[in-house]
Each structure stands twice: as C-alpha cells, then as structure tokens.
Write a structure and sequence with these properties.
The protein is α/β, with parallel strands linked by helices and 255 residues long. 41% of the residues lie in helices and 18% in strands.
C-alpha cells in the first residue's frame, strides 16, 4: 500500500489543483498507480481532466461517497492505465451541512479509501481552499501532507495557520499524519520579491522544503482547457520539467 497525500492550503490560487493534476500525471508516467481524489466542490481537478460529475446525468461523485455511502471504486474514472480520478461535483458544497450530525464524520473519506488503498502507489487528495469538514476529512485520510506555498509574503502567515490545523488533526484524529513536504509554487524568477520570499520559505521550513520550485508557466494554465495534463499538452514545457522533478523527489522521500 502506498501513501495517501493531502495537497492542502487554505489560500486559493496557489497552484494546488494544478499540482494534483500534474504531479499525479508525472507519477503515473513513472509507472506508479495513482488515484486523484477531487474533494473540492468547485470541481477544478475534475474539470482539468474534462470529467464532470452531474446529478442530472446520473454521474456519481465524491458527494455520493461521503453523503450517501457509495463505494469509492464505483465512482472512479480511468484517465489512463496508471492514473484514475474520483470526481467532485457542486453537490459537495452541501456536505458540511448534511454531515453535521453524522457520527465519525471526520473519518468518512478515510473509511472510503481503505478498500481501494492497496490498488495504488499514491493517492493524492485535492483539498478545498478552506479548513472545513472536507479538508479535515482529507487530513484524517492522509498519511502525509504536501503544501504549495506561493512566493508572496502573506503566504507564510497562512501556512502557519495550516500547520496549526494539521497539528490539531494529528492530536485528535490521525497521530500518524506528517508534513510530507513543502514547495514553492507559481515562482517568477524575474521578480526580486519572488526570490526573497523563496529564500524566507527555505529558512522557515528547512529540510521539509523540496528542492524543486514550480515556475510560472503559461502551458500549465492552458492544459486544463484541453482536458489533459501538462505532459499531453506540452511535454517540453518548464511546467512539465518542474512536476517531473517534484515527482522524483516525492518518490525518493516515499521510499
């Protein structure tokens, strides 16, 4: 059984979904069996791969898994032989309310993943940009977290809050949870500020920080419009190189 990673940051726009989509694809390209779990009601990860769960089309989603008890393997869609996706839908936005009185609600995702965990080397959970019940489910289900940090000064303040939340979840629900790594995302080497913040992040996180920096790259923004990963869209781009490098580091740390 491989590791389950919660890719999380309560701040939106830091490249979290882009990371899940393309890190997952990079790992799959290296022969790893990968499951992507879209836990965000905005469904950006599902949209990235052009898989849209819709109640009117009777296409099930993570809403059905968490709120209706549907088995996770029954909603999984195959992207390719090594890469699978459990899609989200807008219905998931009501999960906090619907699950408010459910006993053990924090562990619903963990329990849903258990029956399929042995099939995958990596399970990557795309958590919502908030620290509500869905994100807590992601953290309870995960063995490790991956945290993208945008190269701007306010980003570090948000990460401190996130680390506090991770510690609370570890104490209350998941004692084996650890920070699997932090990486700088959306980096622009032309900007002095980005370089300064990257240095500050390095000083703050030390060995937890990955060497790989995810550079800003227009191809990363364009790939979702084609319903594909960066490797299908532009395998020679800096975005493809960066996520390949990050995948190699994740595999090395996972060993």
């Amino acid at each position: 059984m491989g590791n389950t990673y919660a890719i999380i940051n309560q701040k939106g726009g830091v490249g979290k979904t882009t990371t899940v989509a393309n890190l997952g694809a990079a790992l799959a390209n290296k022969g790893k069996k990968v499951l992507l779990v879209d836990l965000d009601a905005q469904s950006n990860l599902s949209t990235h791969y052009n898989i849209l769960a819709d109640e009117t089309l009777a296409i099930p989603s993570m809403y059905d898994v968490l709120c209706k008890g549907m088995p996770l393997n029954s909603i999984v869609v195959e992207i390719n032989d090594n890469l699978h996706l459990a899609p989200s839908s807008l219905l998931l936005s009501a999960a906090d309310l619907e699950l408010g009185g459910v006993i053990g609600r924090e562990a619903l995702l963990k329990n849903a993943i258990k029956p399929v965990a042995d099939k995958y080397n990596f399970i990557l959970i795309d958590c919502p940009p908030s620290l509500g019940l869905l994100s807590v489910n992601g953290l309870v289900a995960a063995s490790k977290t991956l945290i993208p940090v945008q190269s701007e000064y306010l980003a570090l303040h948000g990460v401190r809050q996130l680390l506090d939340t991770i510690e609370r979840v570890r104490s209350a629900y998941n004692p084996s949870l650890s920070v699997g790594g932090v990486f700088v995302s959306m980096f622009d080497a032309r900007k002095r500020l980005d370089k300064s913040v990257a240095e500050t992040v390095k000083e703050y996180f030390g060995e937890v920080l990955f060497d790989t920096i995810i550079r800003k790259n227009v191809a990363l923004a364009e790939a979702p419009a084609k319903g594909s990963s960066i490797y299908s869209y532009d395998a020679n781009s800096s975005g493809a190189q960066d996520y390949n490098s990050l995948a190699e580091e994740v595999i090395k740390r996972d060993a």
